[in-house]
# Entry
Amino acid sequence: MTEPLSSQLDSTSPQQNRLSGVRRRDRYRPDLPYAELHCHSYFSLLDGASSPETLVARAAELGLTGIALTDHDSLAGAIRFWTAAQEADVHPIIGAEVTLADGAHLTLLAETQTGYANLSRLITEARVEQRSFPEKFDADMAWPGKVEPALMWEALAKHQAGLIALSGCRRGPVAQALLAGEQKVARHALVNLRDIFGPANLYVELQHHFRPDDERLLRTSLALAHELNVDAVITNNVHYATPKGSRLRDALIAIQRNESLTAARRGGRLPTNSTYQLIHGPEMARRLQSLPTTLVERLLINSVNIAQRCQISLDFSNHRLPKWHENSDTPDIPISPSEFATLYALCHSNLPHRYPELRPQVLKQLAHELEVIEEAGLAGYFLMVWDIVRFARAQGIRCQGRGSAANSIVAYLLGITSIDPLHHDLLFERFLSSDKFTMPDIDIDFAADRREEVIQYVYQRYGREHAAMVCNVVTYRARSALRDLGKALDFPPNVIDTLIQRLDTNSPQQASVALKLENRDRGLENDIGAPDPNELLVDLLAQIDGCPRHLSIHSGGMIITRAPLAEIVPLEPATMPGRIVCQWDKDSVEDAGLIKIDLLGLRMLGLLTAAVDHVRAMGDPPPALDALPLDDPEIYAMLQKGDTVGTFQVESRAQQQMLPRLKPTSFEDIAVQVAIVRPGPIQGGAVHPYLRRRAGLEPTSYLHPLLEPVLKETLGVLLFQEQVIRVAVAAAGFNPGEADLLRRAMSRSRDKEAMAAMQARFLAGAQAEGMDAETATAIFGQLAGFAGYGFCKSHAASFALIAYQSLYLKRYHAPAFYCALFNQQPMGFYAPEVIAGDARRHGVELLPPHINRSDWMYTLERTSARRWALRTGLCTVQGLGDAAWQQLEMARRQSPFHDLADLQRRAGIDKDVLGNLIRAGTLDAFGMRRELLWRLGELDARPDEFELTLPAIAADLPHLEALEATAWEYELLGLSAAGQVMRHYRERLRRARVLSTWEVKQARAGRRVRVAGMMVVRQRPATAKGILFISLEDESGLLDLVVKPQVYARLRPVLRGQPLILASGLVQRSGRAVSVLVGDAVGL
Amino acid sequence: MTRLWPAGEAIEMRIDGQGRPLYFSWKGQVHQVEQIQQRWQVDSDWWSEQGRVWRDYLTVTTANGLLCVLYFDMLEQSWYLAKLYD
# Structure
């Protein structure tokens, strides 16, 4: 230190105090430089109120020399912060405010790359390692789950290299002691820190927030710093970019404690004022005007010097993957001189299998891809994915690559994907291009029930030090925001419920706008009078948009790295036992230059496996699903009818409406069908032109002749993401890699400036190709509207293949298909009751659950030499848990139950569950349900004792109405095996001239009809302008009802409150798709 | 005897060019501010029915020996006497 701090301090006196809120002349140079070294973003969960991007933008506005991100025990926002700072040309410092084991806070900043690795390691230690999280997790172990972070001083001492420490806020080990008047403790803490970090890397952290004891703390801190020869620096412990954010922060603190703002204030948990925003040097100097000018300048300059010392990079693209051979302890992994040679050899050895007739085009494409892969250094990545897929197949776990990877012939040859990219004219550049900016992304679906085995394999193969799941940042949705903010503002629960019921958006921002419109007539609050709580809610809702609520596990993303992962990104335990997640989400992982692999669980793949197993068990030859010819007319007939309940991707209500209009006749059509019912094509206005052109009702046209070769296959409209790339190449002369960057920019679209630059580049390119500006702008607009929401063709084709396989099973192996479908529930679009109706309509008899015949799951039961029926599993009976089932099954194995008393005596199930078993009909073989219930009441539960024969009390019990039996079954099983509930009403409905859904489908367009049924699906798609679609089911099938908003407003109590309705309206026909435009409805 | 006015007694304040309080008048008497002992800011209750409280507080001693707490109301832009110690 050049000059002792206290010598400067001596010349001050309290008289020099000035007020903050009153205008005064500025004694300091307006350009007094300052860097903010202590700043929380909203990744300090429920404490910080601003996004990393907002903080960076504000720092740029204020002209700060640098800004640090120091979230609580977290680097979750680091990549977003870093990226934003690069773009805004602001110097970023990466740090964290760590929580020590005694609860004290300490500010750490990464000076060097080693320092960054240590910081990440320390946060990991604070969150995982010292909490005895087992290295190898066993299902029997207790899992601590998410815990409060706590860092030991010893860990700090071990990993201090490359870090600069600031002594922390008022909760720092030094300030905390000083505030308590414990000089000795404070001195001891500072000495400890000095011993750990060395005097050059430790600063006493000062702050001034106009709190009553701030001045005193400043002085005592400075005196201690002087005494121990440690320098000092000023920070503002920022929690929001501008003072406006202080309200959201107050609310978040209340939310954190699940209390109201008033309660939080009374408990002393809210900050006293709103001065924790970003400020510039002169403003900071004004806060410190009780100190001598030279000292203030020094505190500010120190912030700048520290900022400049911190020079690190968050680009990890250089050391991202483990070396393939390093980890190869599996004996059957081929060893070649290099990863690339191994990949090359594998691809070529698989050529005869995938391409029995080898064409030059195949070799040309393979050579091209291998060249790009070698150049990008990604051979090891492909081998890694190949290895995972190979493992899964060896274990009989069905899997298939989805997404853009199916554009690659290498992925196809390695068995990662199942679609031949050449046959389907797919575009490799959508997956990987020769420019180095884009990272490939391989997503693989595994049978959901066995995905865990694959994840465990990856952990075991690369070690927990090198592999972790990617996190998912769960941000506030309109619903959760309303609930939490409403509670903070002390809204009565019923008011919050009403507000939530009225929501028609997921976005807090849009909810805010809607609420504001409702409030408009009430008159606005002024700042002095009592605030209108509704206005406060409007403001907070808008502010909370994008704010994370918590981190969860991504559905399947894993990162695998060469360096220990904990040195790249902090790891923390998830709530799910055995799961460790990293603090970055998939975007951050990608922006850090790391590669992730998505290991997703797909129930449909489990269904396919199970269905094939059932077929085998039934004694039939199992279908070779992976070698099906894709041109079976029976399958296309099903599709054209919309007979798709339970199948993959093409089963939803919207898909079923589209199918009879699109009339698929080829595999390519199924890919189109999968891709067309998506927000991209719907919002891009592509659907109707495509259908009309397909039906020959209008000619195919193009915005410009240059687009014809690209869009010909989809009749001139944009349906696939690859087409965005190809259009940019054809119309504006982009190279494919560049064009993919354009697509990515469009699909992320956070950055308006980048988009504007892209547009300029596109327009210039198009002009060079001889296109006029108007056409070029129109094309660019279409691309931008589409890019974010479209499917890529490779993905659509991969899914179309699974769709075809599921259709095939439904068509030719219906009992096996439905059995597997029931056992995979919940999955897909429909509830079990709808699937049951569909099964019946396809001739598959559904047998009720039976105490002696049912297994736990659904099973197939032979009813005659050639017929199989589906036996409902006991797992469907509400209240019968796995443990009770185990007892029951064990007793049943000795001998079948012969009556109720026998069941109760031997299975030891409690009476409530027995009641459910009776009401659900599983004991119908033993007598009438009411009678059994009566007898149940008389039985004495003494398992394993002699059966007591009690004299039966004769009671005259009323017979159970068929309708009541069905109602009980719906209540306890979710469906009735005997048939759809509407059959009980049919006779009366027929007399009242109410049609069945089948009859409505035969009626001409425009006819006024009345139809009754059960509402099984209610949907209001964002793309449908507030229209509500209802799927109405009766025993003859499903029918779409369309309810316009003004009608809905009138019928809301009926349509929301009643499961069974009688609706009247006009028949609408569009091709073979039929719906009813509802005019009126009543509950049945 | 210490007197406390939660809402504050309106006072008239004269400040210097740098915003430093010099004199205030209360109940017809003029008091000269001698020393500022402490200052702090409060911004709270923006959600409550009573309305937001946003004030700059000062503890000052006056030339005639009074110790008092004053505040400047940021919303109203006016001065108040909050507490007087005898």
The mean pLDDT of chain B is 86. The radius of gyration of chain B is 13 Å.
